[in-house]
Amino acid sequence: TVRSRAVDAADMGKDLEKVLITEEQIHAKLEELAGEIATEYAGKDLLLVGVLKGAVMVMADLMRALPISAPVDWMAVSSYGSGTKSSGVVRILKDLDVDITGKHVLIVEDIVDSGLTLSWIRANLASRSPASVEICTLLRKPDAAKVEVDVKWVGFDIPNEFVVGYGLDYAEQYRGLRQVGTLAPHVYS
Ligand code: XMP
Ligand code: MG
């Protein structure tokens, strides 16, 4: 029921130490980015490519904010060995369904942390002869960058802390939180 879901959401929220970005801030930012993206790709053959699973919320809200229609496809990659650090080793778990030759590809991501995953994905997609490849990410951690990634649209630069919510998980939990925040220490112990 709606009521029990609201209670669940409140319970989930109790595990947050602090909220970095509210639902309202996320939605306002995505509206702004969607306007810029629509202008950039007007009249072009745009394909939105989401990176599973973290980008599901960003994609859902961005595509609804976009005043232009564009097909969506998904990729799933594994970049983390164990824990919360990027290993730099990327493996495709699910490839795109469609051929991107000649298409203007916009990669939609939840977060750019070390940048290792996205730079690998971008190079991989660029090798398939698209017309262009650009990146839109909701979050970026400038202090965590290990490689330079040219990201055309960034929602928010955040401190170098592990965050959850709005698609981002800790051990597959908390993806459903409507805001982005850091977890309280008790969750980790
Ligand atoms: P990199 O380091 O390669 O990030 O840029 C790869 C993927 O790791 C996930 N990631 C996070 N997930 N909280 C999360 O829940 C974080 O703070 C975080 N940092 C990175 C994310 O899926 C990203 O695409
Ligand atoms: Mg991700």
TrEMBL record:
Q: Which domain of life is it from?
A: Bacteria
- Residue span(s) of domain Phosphoribosyltransferase: 24-170
Q: Where in the cell is it found?
A: Cytoplasm
Q: Any signal peptide, and if so, which residues?
A: none
The record's comment on protein family reads: Belongs to the tRNA(Ile)-lysidine synthase family.
User: What does its UniProt record remark on the domains?
Assistant: The N-terminal region contains the highly conserved SGGXDS motif, predicted to be a P-loop motif involved in ATP binding.
Role summary: Ligates lysine onto the cytidine present at position 34 of the AUA codon-specific tRNA(Ile) that contains the anticodon CAU, in an ATP-dependent manner. Cytidine is converted to lysidine, thus changing the amino acid specificity of the tRNA from methionine to isoleucine.
Recorded protein name is tRNA(Ile)-lysidine synthase
Organism expressing this protein natively: Phycicoccus elongatus Lp2
The shown chain, on whole-protein numbering, covers 365 to 553 of 553
